[in-house]
Amino acid sequence: MFYCLLLRKQWSAQQQKGIIIGIVCLSLSVPFVIDKIHSNTTPTSETCLHNHEIPEMVISQYCPANGELEMCYEIATRETNFCECEAVEKANLLMYKANPFYDFLITHQSKVDLFFLIGIGTMCVILLLRLAYLLYLIVSSRRKKVLFDGKSYTILYPKKKLAVCSFKLWHNYILWQDDMQVLNEKEQNAIIWHEISHLQQCDTWLKIAFNLMQSIWWLNPVYYFFAKELERISEHIADELAVQKLGSTKTYASLLVKMKRKRNVALTHAFNNSQLKVRVEYLLQNKKVPKKKFATLMGFFMLIGIILSSTTFYTMPSISKTMDDIKFYETLAKEYQNTGKSLFCKNCLKAKQGQLVPSTN
Predict the structure, then answer these.
(1) Given Cys at both, which of 184, 188, 221, 317 links 47, Cβ 3.0 to 4.6 Å?
(2) Which residues in the chain show pLDDT less than 70?
(3) What is the pLDDT of residues 136-162, one digit of tens each?
């Protein structure tokens, strides 16, 4: 929301791209930094995600309610060998009550883990297959070395009719077709400069990085929004360079429209297969977005960092408490299954479980 309302229309395409990459990097790093601060400043913190003893506030949730306390205490005192304490104390009584949601999580934990592992593995395999296909294109295509602006590029002529596109691995590659010769030299150069812009932006490596991050955020709709935004912004940046080299916005917009659509290749940047209407409108509106000063840009990054840090500070206690709650409930549930008892002594349970197994990350 912050990006869409304040930054998307007011900043240049290059700055928008930097802001999105910055937001993603902060989103990945801020939680770990906050958790590290918590673990260093408060070793027994109840609001961190590192290993720690189950806090008392979680355990106290399983104390009998006021209306049940006297009855539970009477049951405990009558039971032989209820606990190893010298005397049963009301404050130490804990009662197990079935929680269907927690029972479902604990019972199906292995299946849930397997589901996510399969999802992550599938995405990694897809990424490897896409990279393998790029290697296949390099090996199987006819190649030609060209120089543009003093830099070397490898032109690939694949056997299959593919869209004009580019990618960067250990060299800069541009996929081309012989039928592009129907265009005049200026139009061909404009297309090549468009692809060179993608190579200069290192968009291939950015796509690979985002494909890897998909294994973490594949259920997060914001990830897909940012991935689509990066695709749009990269095309605008490449179109701007091509127009600059061609010298005519309308001529380049016409070139976009008349280029025939062909099959695109994953991890590459096809010349005209991505958001054609949006790109033409962007070029023809001739809107000059003023460049913001570096200090303003850094100010926005600081503001974004504060927003993400505040979000982490407010959400981490809830996440940590839920994890601890499930872990302690699992301890009570196992004792209930093993003994058939639903009433326990807190001190004895702690001693038996080794101060309660630390919560997992």
Answers:
(1) 317
(2) 41-50, 260-274, 286-292, 353-361
(3) 999 999 888 888 888 899 999 988 888
User: What are the backbone dihedrals phi and psi of residue 126, each rounded to the nearest 5 degrees, phi first?
Assistant: -60, -45
Q: Which residues, other chains included, contact 299 with Cβ-Cβ below 8 Å and sequence gap of 6+?
A: none
Other Cβ atoms less than 10 A from the Cβ of 353: the count is 14
Q: Which residues pair with 143 in a beta bridge?
A: 156
**166, 175 contact by CB (below 8 A):** yes
Domain spans in the chain, listed from the N-terminal domain onward: 1-96+309-361, 112-289
CA distances for 304 relative to 14, 27, 290, angstroms: 18, 10, 21
Dihedral of alpha carbons 180, 186, 189, 190, sign: negative
pLDDT tens-digit readout, 38-94? 777 665 555 566 677 777 778 888 888 877 888 888 888 888 788 878 788 888 888
Name the maximum alpha-carbon separation found in the chain. Answer: 98
Q: Which two tokens stand for residue 96?
A: 């197990």
C-alpha 326/C-alpha 106 separation (Å) is 8
Q: Evaluate whether 273 touches 261 at the Cβ level (below 8 Å).
A: yes
The number of CA neighbours under 13 Å toward the Cβ of 291 is: 3
